[in-house]
Specification:
Elements: H1 2-12, E1 16-18, E2 21-23, H2 45-57, H3 65-74, H4 83-88, H5 90-100, H6 110-130, E3 150-152, E4 155-157, H7 159-171, H8 200-212, E5 218-221, E6 224-227, H9 230-233, H10 235-238, H11 241-248, H12 251-259, E7 265-267
Parallel strand pairs: 2-4, 6-7
Antiparallel strand pairs: 1-2, 3-4, 5-6
Helix pairs in contact: 3-5, 5-6, 6-7, 11-12
């Protein structure tokens, strides 16, 4: 296995260009950690340099009003997605993604870059579902996270690379897990708005609290704390899980956790079924 992985890592670390688009592949996502999720590993090469430049000296903003309008039409009250409505308004989604493909990553202000990658992840996830009418779970789409590539700022990236190669290692913010959406019922509810750099911190706080107020993400039962599997898969991102829950859980729940420091933590089952009515298959 080690020998086979070495060959794949060497192959994936090559940066290929075609038509001005950079393939920023890296083998970090091939390594499954003991938590059952890819370990974070910062993408290097051209995209890494673009991200680092933005973090140091970026000043530009990235407009998201088109994506914001799209989300207001398709996101349900519970944070799911009506993919039939999304299909009817797909042109708005594609207009946003056409701009994402040309985004000047190196010039974006830090929070604008962070918001861009959150929005891009969510938009390309919706696009992936729309490209597979009738699908009942995102897991049934071959290579949806590891092989299917999408252009962000001229770089071809997988969804895993956006999450584990950009968002997690460069921004180190566990609240991101409550902002990106994997099109499944147990995923964090999708926000009915696009993220913007100017109020990103407030939005991430809001969405984290919104999720942890739901029984699907946090419960106190039989003297135990039951939390979303995010805390199992991404434990290193959350650090002290109890401290995180005390900060973002509803007040009554947070007080209970504070008063019971030895209460065991258990993880809730994860439902991978689609987070809304599937786009209909078209008759041929």
């Amino acid at each position: 296995m080690k020998k086979e992985f070495g060959k794949e890592e060497k192959r994936m670390r090559k940066y290929l260009t075609a038509g001005g688009v950079v393939f920023a592949g890296v083998a970090f996502f091939l390594v499954a950690t003991v938590r059952g999720a890819p370990a974070p590993g910062a993408l290097k090469g051209e995209i890494g340099r673009a991200v680092e430049q933005a973090l140091k000296e970026g000043r530009d903003t990235f407009p998201v009003s088109d994506f914001d309008g799209f989300l207001k039409k398709v996101v349900t009250k519970s944070g799911g997605v009506d993919y039939r409505v999304a299909a009817a308004h797909r042109a708005e989604l594609e207009n946003f993604l056409s701009r994402v493909r040309r985004a000047p990553l190196a010039r974006l202000e830090k929070n604008e870059l962070k918001a861009l990658f959150i929005n891009a992840y969510n938009a390309y996830t919706i696009q992936s579902i729309l490209d597979h009418p009738g699908v009942t779970s995102i897991r049934k789409i071959p290579g949806v996270w590891k092989r299917r590539r999408h252009i962000v700022g001229g770089f071809k990236l997988t969804l895993d690379e956006m999450e584990h190669g950009i968002l997690r290692p460069y921004f180190k913010d566990a609240r991101i897990h409550f902002a990106i959406n994997c099109a499944s019922r147990s995923c964090a509810p999708l926000a009915p708005f696009a993220y913007r750099g100017r109020n990103l911190d407030r939005s991430l706080d809001e969405r984290t609290r919104f999720s942890l107020a739901r029984p699907a993400f946090l419960q106190i039962r039989d003297g135990r704390i039951y939390v979303t599997s995010y805390f199992k898969w991404f434990g290193e991102d959350f650090g002290d899980a109890r401290a995180f829950l005390i900060r973002y859980a509803p007040r009554k729940t947070a007080l209970w956790i504070r008063k019971h420091p030895d209460a065991p933590i258990r993880f809730l089952d994860y439902d991978w079924s689609l987070n809304g009515p599937s786009p209909e298959k078209r008759e041929r």
